[in-house]
Write a structure and sequence with these properties.
This is MaoC family dehydratase. By secondary structure, this protein is of the alpha+beta class. It has a domain of about 100 residues: Hotdog Thioesterase (Thiol Ester Dehydrase, Chain A, Roll). It is about 15% helix and about 35% strand. Strands 1, 2, 3, 4, 5 and 6 form a six-stranded antiparallel β-sheet that branches.
Amino acid sequence: MNTTPVNTNFSPDDYSIVPAKTFADLRIGDVFRAPSRTLTDAHASAFQAVSCDNHPVHYDVEWARKHGHSAPVVHGLQVLAFTAPGATLFPHYIGEIFISFTELSCHFLKEVHSGDTLYSSLEITDLIDQGDTGLVVTAVTVHNQRSELVLSGQHKYLLKQ
């Protein structure tokens, strides 16, 4: 016999990590940060397996040094993945109004190596009302532990109004 009391006030529909926002609630300048992450050789190896990118700059220490790198270089697309909105709380705020991730761009500014700690963030730079929908434009940045900007770019998301 189950003697656990049932909470009749609980509904999974009301269970959220953060309060939901509407497009009108968002503001230019809102910042959504991801937790810092220190890259390891295991991360690079896993990404290499998924991406099938076997260029020796990513895994061959001697090849990398011979070609002017201090160590193997983390895949640029792996660094870009650190800007995924899901790494922040942003999708939890907009979950009910999210339609699609429509566009991204980026510039790789500095090399990233195993052992580097990365700090990613999204900052809303524009909110474009399109009637029934709204477009959110964010600047994306990734800094390393030396406060160097290693990636900058932009994401766009389409939301319901």
